[in-house]
Amino acid sequence: RDVGGAGRGVSQDMRNGAGRSTARDMGVGRSTSRDMGGAGRSTSRDVRGGVSRNTSSRRVNGTENMSERDRKRRQAERKKAKKRKRMGCLFVIFLMIAAVAGGVFYLYRNSYQGIISRGNQALKAGELNQAIAYFERGIKKDETKKDAYIGLAKVYIAKKDLDWAESIFLEAVKKQPKKMTWKQMKREGYIELYLMMIPVLVILIIFKYIPMNGILIAFQDFNIFKGILGSEFIGFQNFQTMFTDRDFLRAIRNTFAINLYKMCFYIPLPIVLALLLNEVGKKFRNTMQTVVYLPHFLSWVIVGGIFVNILSVNGGMVNEMIKSIGGSPVRFLYDSKYFIHVIAFSAMWKEVGWGSIVYLGAIGSIDPEIYEAARVDGASRLQQMIRITIPNITSTIVLMLLMSLSNILGNSFEQVLIMYNPAVYDVADIINTYVYRVGVHNMQYGYASAVGLFNGFVGFLFLITANALCRKFLDRSIW
Question: Is the pTM of this model over 0.90?
């Protein structure tokens, strides 16, 4: 035990001493490493600091140069965009002013006063035949005014044809309307007619003229909370956006395509139906009129539901018939190839019968003695139809054509809204559905009002153009 204890004590002393000395040596190493680390760190900091300062200064200078170039580039782009926008607005303003000026000039040139003015100019220039043509046109336009008669009489006086001049003066005296007194108007029943017009005028003023104040929305960034007076005025920006919007251009294309396609059937089919109904017996005619008039009184919600059920892929009557003969179902309402034909056919089914009423009324106003004289001369029913009936309803046909053209951008809204879907937007989205979607769903009231104003303006131009063409080539017009 003594030897073991001594051994253990010696070993402990040796371990403690060695451990302390080793620890001290390690401490010296730590201090040495600290010194070396500090020197290395300081050296690396100095090296890195110098390099990083130089690099960062270069980066700052480069970044400043790039930011300056970007800023100048952005300013140039903004100036170009403002210039393009300004030029676009000026171009739209120029087009609108030119259209209004052209319309005013056209209306004056073809008005009664314009025709008489050109007749007087031709008379002063010595172009007597041209003056006669102008004054006769003025008489045809309004035979109750004396200016055209006086001008025509002056022409014949210049041609030294006094007999003709005297007859024209006498004709002018006969054509002058006599002023009616209050008692005569009351006796003839005009007072009651004017009183019946009052509700119509009130409705027209309330629902057509007073809402025209809302046209201002088309030139504003309209805010529903600020109202018309508080919203920001942005000029023609909505119109510029409109003409650069692909969806709007697609809607214009679809509107013209659908309505022109419908007009190809809507103009001739009611005429043919009226001519056929006029040739059959009275009892059969009354029955057929009831049958063909009935669809007009159904709303498009009902008609759309009928066609959706008939043309449905699953269980639709048409597709079931196709399946029965070995064919595959056709997606009539989901395929762009068929949708426009469905729209045209459903419109004809609903409105052709109602459209024939106007032509039946015009046919009924033809003098029966003309038909009797034609039968005595040996004319067949077909010859009477071609030679008598159709020429006598030409003015009615022209009137209905003009009404259809003036509304070429405004109809089909309810029909398309009920029957279309996103799968056929490329052929079915028309101006009115586009306005409804943008104005009501997206709450872009100013932009939607601009599109609606453009729609009405184009319809007005169509009406004037069609009236001028019909007057020039068919000698029939509304005014």
Answer: no
Helix (H) or strand (E) holding 299: none
Side chain identity at 237, as an amino acid letter?
Answer: Q
Q: How many CB atoms lie within 10 A of CB 121?
A: 13
**H or E element: which one contains 268?**
helix 268-279
173-194 average pLDDT score: 72
- Tell me whether strands 232-233 and 220-221 are parallel, antiparallel or unpaired: antiparallel
Query: Are the beta carbons of 349 and 306 closer than 8 angstroms?
Result: no
What is the greatest pairwise CA distance in the chain? 176
Lowest mean pLDDT among 31-35, 224-228, 359-363: 31-35
In Å, how far from its chain's centre is CA 371? 45
Task: Give the tens place of pLDDT for each residue, 75-134.
Answer: 888 777 777 666 766 666 777 677 777 766 666 666 677 787 888 888 888 888 888 888
Q: Rounded to whole angstroms, what are the CA distances from 57 to 48, 69, 71, 479?
A: 14, 18, 21, 81
Q: Where are the alpha helices (DSSP H) in 142-189?
A: 147-158, 162-175, 182-188
CB hemisphere CA count around 110 (13 angstroms): 15
CA quadruple 247, 249, 253, 259: dihedral, nearest 10: 80
